[in-house]
Amino acid sequence: MTADVEIRGVEHRFGHFTALHRIDLSIAAGEFVVLLGPSGCGKTTLLSLIGGFLTPSEGQVLIGGRDMTHVGPKLRPTTTMFQDYALFPHMTLRDNVGFGLRMRGQSRRARDAKAVEMLAMVGLDDKAGRKPHALSGGQRQRVALARALAVEPDVLLLDEPLGALDLKLRRQMQDELKAIQRRVGTTFIHVTHDQEEAMAIADRIVVMNAGQIEHCGTPEEVYLRPRTLFSANFMGELNRLPVRPAGEGVASPLGPLPVPPAEGILCLRPESVGLSGSFSLGRARLTEAAFFGAHHRCRFAPLAAPDMRLVAHLPQGSHPEIGAEVELFGRDPVILPEAA
């Protein structure tokens, strides 16, 4: 089962505080959408409105074309999976996964068969008779996912479900979560503040800030072609140069640059700064370098602006000595208006 979700002009207020400002968002059936942003941006509030745990102050929430704005969580075709797995410690994994089906009146035989099927999907059918305390954190997370999907929701809501896992396990679970979503075809709406996680799993990322949507697009669009400075900064490290039109290019603290004339902030990702590229950034001195496995993170002081630092990701084994002067180049710039 799967369904589309439509958010129309939704506002939500807690007393005098407005948590969401006129949110409009369309999510296609079977899409994996990630709500991304810092703490307090409104992403969890929006997820709660979709799940029915909150009622919007204004606007509508539609699921599968039906108005669910004033329908409670129990009667919505949604299930929510939280960071706290909330597994019943006294129950076996089979009974944990089948609990929602039990609440819906299914027979023991039917729900056990469904529970084992869902445990098989997450690779734990051989542990169906065990209890949660015998599992690792990642395995308990899989059980919680199997339980959420056992009731066949049209929309699965995930509130930072990977936040409690260590880095290696979190990356493994990101791959598994995406693979399972593709297999079942259910609409997934996932909340996180982790940019890397969002890019690893999402069909589309919704970047939120101060109760508003800053940018909504594919991971590539949001990272490479951000629409606002907030979105650009939040999605990763960024080199920023104030620029203004000058002839056929722009004037910058580094001197004239041969990019299309515009006024604002010229943004360059560290991987777009290096020892070759489409335009010169001038001479610079290497001040720091650190090895990050796939690349060296290097900080350069431009000779034209000695107090400025440009960050570049250079390939393994290819950075100059500390103190060396080189010519830096840039590529794929994005010029954005300064924040109001």
Describe this structure in words.
The chain has 340 residues and is of the alpha+beta class. It has 2 domains: 229 residues, Rossmann fold (3-Layer(aba) Sandwich); 71 residues, Nucleic acid-binding proteins (OB fold (Dihydrolipoamide Acetyltransferase, E2P), Beta Barrel), CATH 2.40.50.140. It has 9 helices and 20 strands. Strand 1 and strand 2 form a beta hairpin. It is elongated, with a radius of gyration of 24 Å. The two termini are 43 Å apart.
Features:
Rossmann fold; 9 helices; 25% helix; alpha+beta; 340 residues; elongated
Layout: helices, strands, pairs:
Blueprint: E1 5-14, E2 17-27, E3 32-36, H1 43-51, E4 58-63, E5 66-67, E6 78-82, H2 93-97, H3 99-103, H4 108-121, H5 137-150, E7 155-159, H6 167-184, E8 187-192, H7 195-201, E9 204-209, E10 212-217, H8 219-224, H9 229-234, E11 239-246, E12 249-252, E13 255-257, E14 264-268, E15 273-274, E16 279-291, E17 296-302, E18 310-314, E19 325-330, E20 334-336
Parallel strand pairs: 3-8, 3-9, 6-7, 7-8
Antiparallel strand pairs: 1-2, 1-4, 4-5, 9-10, 11-12, 11-14, 12-13, 14-20, 15-19, 16-17, 16-19, 17-18
Helix pairs in contact: 4-5
Number of helices: 9
Mean pLDDT: 92
Global shape: elongated
Query: Segments where pLDDT lies below 50 for 5+ residues?
Result: none
Judged by helices, strands and strand pairing, the structural class is: alpha+beta
CATH superfamily of the largest domain: P-loop containing nucleotide triphosphate hydrolases
CATH-derived topology of the largest domain: Rossmann fold
Largest sheet: 6 strands, mixed
**Termini, distance in Å?**
43 Å
Using the 3D structure, state the CATH architecture of the largest domain: 3-Layer(aba) Sandwich
Trace the largest sheet across and list its strands: 6-7-8-3-9-10
Strand content of the residues, in percent? 25-35%
Alpha-carbon Rg, integer: 24 Å
